[in-house]
Each structure stands twice: as C-alpha cells, then as structure tokens.
UniProtKB/TrEMBL annotation:
Keyword line: ATP-binding, Cell membrane, Ion transport, Iron, Iron transport, Membrane, Nucleotide-binding, Transport
A Pfam family assignment: ABC_tran
Domain of life: Bacteria
Record-annotated membrane-spanning stretches: none
Mitochondrion is among the record's keywords: no
Coiled coil: none
GO molecular function: ATP binding
Residue intervals of the ABC transporter domain: 2-232
Name of the molecule in the record: ABC transporter ATP-binding protein
Species this chain originates from: Ornithinimicrobium faecis
Amino acid sequence: MLRLDDVTVRFGDLLAVDEVSLALPEGQVLAVLGPSGCGKSTLLRAIAGLEDLSGGSVNLNGQDLAGVPTHRRGFALMFQDGQLFRHLDVAGNVGYPLRLRGVDRSEANAQVVDLLETVGLPDYGDRDVTTLSGGEQQRVALARALAAQPRVLLLDEPLSALDRSLRERLAGDLRGILSATHTTALLVTHDHDEAFTLADRMAVMLEGQIVQQGPTQTVWTEPVDRRVAEFLGFSTFLVGTPAEQVADAAGLPNPSRAPLALRRSALRVDPDGPLHATVRRAAAISDAVRVDLELDDVGPVEALAPQDAVLTPGHRVRVLPDRAGMALL
Ligand SMILES: Nc1ncnc2c1ncn2[C@@H]1O[C@H](COP(=O)(O)OP(=O)(O)OP(=O)(O)O)[C@@H](O)[C@H]1O
C-alpha cells in the first residue's frame, strides 16, 4: 500500500501541492486527473523522491520514505516521451534494469523476450530505438519499467504524446498489461479518457489539492461540485424551475435546490424528444454535431445532434434528455 499523508510541496511562495492525502492498495491503478499546472507532475516527482516535501509523508507498506533516495524506493517512472536510451537497442533498453539488478545474462535475455511479448513487440529486440514509432517507443518504455519489477509504477501522461487513435488503442493495451502483471500504478494525467480507461480509482486535482476521489465511475458520474463537474466535461448548469423541468423529462428525482449539471450528451436533438428548442448555433465534431440551443422555458443549453440533422439558426427542434449525462450536484 502506497500512502500519502498531507503531502505538501512549495516552490517559494507557490504552493504547488497542498496537503494531498491518497491511498493506493497493492495491485490497483489510481489516476490523478487535473488540468495543466494543477501540480500533478510535482506530486509524482515528490512521491519518487525527486522533489523535497515541505510537509507530510510518503509511506510504502508502512515505511516512511523520507530520506530514502529515489533509486532505493522501488519505483519505476514512465514519462510522456519514454526517454529511452538512444545508444542501446530495444533489448538493451528493456534489459537495462535487469543488468542493474545483476540478473544473469541468459535469464535476463529470457525475461526481455517475455516482456517484449507482453507489450506486443515480439521480435523487436534488435531494433534501433530511433527507428521506432511513438507508440512503439512507449511500449518499449513500458517493458523497461516493468522489467524493474517496481513496487509501484509511476506514470506521467504516458500516452499524451501519441495521436488519438493510437492513444485509445494503447490505453486499452496498457490497462490489460497492468492488470495481467498485477502492477500497482499511479498515473497522473489531464486526459479524461486516459484516466478512465486505465484506472480503478480516480482523484481529481485542482490548484494543488485533491478535491474528489473514489472509484472512477463514481467520480465521473457524481462530481462533488461545479468546479469538478466543469473539469469533467459538464457544460450546462441549471437551477430552480429549469432544472426541475429537465430532470422531470429525464425521469430524475426532483433536484430541489441542487444544481443539475448536464454533459452535452445529456440532451440530444431527436424528433421523438419531449422537449422543444430553437437552434442558436451548430458545429460539426468528429462523430456528431454540437449544438447550442435555447430550450423552451429553460434557457441556453449545449446538446448533441446526429450528423444529418438540419440545424440552421432559428430552426425549431425536439430534444430527448438522457439521464446518463446528468448529475445532481
Ligand atoms: N521547479 C520548479 N520551480 C518553480 N515552480 C515550479 C517548479 N516545478 C513546477 N513549478 C510550478 O508548480 C506548478 C505545478 O506544476 P506541475 O508541473 O506539477 O503541473 P502539472 O499539473 O503537472 O502541469 P502539466 O500538465 O502542464 O505538466 C506550476 O505553476 C509550475 O509552474
């Protein structure tokens, strides 16, 4: 179990990490999700021992790691850009931690073959790392990190540098590999999908503080307040009668005084929908159309429409609410 208690890091007057407490049980993957500049890389570096704590403690299996240097903490780090050794081939990179541990040559070679198999790169051992694609480099970096048999794998936006389709594919693969190898991992990222695909638990970090944590699905669907909801992609917030109207149409309990938060996907332009609206603006996105609507008796909302919908400004449409994209705050 990795445990952080009130971990604090200051850079002069700047409080980059503010009393962060987290617990990561063995075998689980925890994602710390937050926008750029919220302090998540600093937190990861502090856990690794690369940044001094101004307060609090980092414990691994009951041992306080204060004073334990980075290379003795039993962690492996994996960054956005892999940071492979360019003078070594693929097998040399993956085998590097094994050589450091003094694993004998034939055993190390066998483990390298296994690890390359695990990350989906069999027969890549002899390749020069400079000839690999970004996705292949990240797989090699992962194999090298796993070769160290870390007590905890620390991942800093491991897939951010990759293009979208590769990122999605590799995220799924990475999840499978972490669970097959029972790796305990802490991931920091600004990417919702990366956190959602990889992690069992999620902690939302804003301005140096963890403002919500819990099972990934719970955090995703039940944000604790408007700040968290906005960061997680809820774009419309309704209170009072408008909130009641939409909640009622979606079959949700009466929100009373609680704000009702809506993702775009909570409202869909659909000829069978019970609500009525006027189109204000529409813009195509990859697999739908994003529409700003003036919902009758409610006001401005964001919604989604199918790509073939007629959505000129002023056009009247019907809207189908979907409670899956709604949360009561
Ligand atoms: N060595 C440093 N000295 C001074 N300030 C720093 C240092 N490292 C980070 N900071 C500041 O601390 C804050 C948090 O930075 P950090 O890199 O942890 O954010 P982040 O959430 O990882 O952002 P990103 O996703 O953009 O990398 C920022 O305001 C940053 O400018």
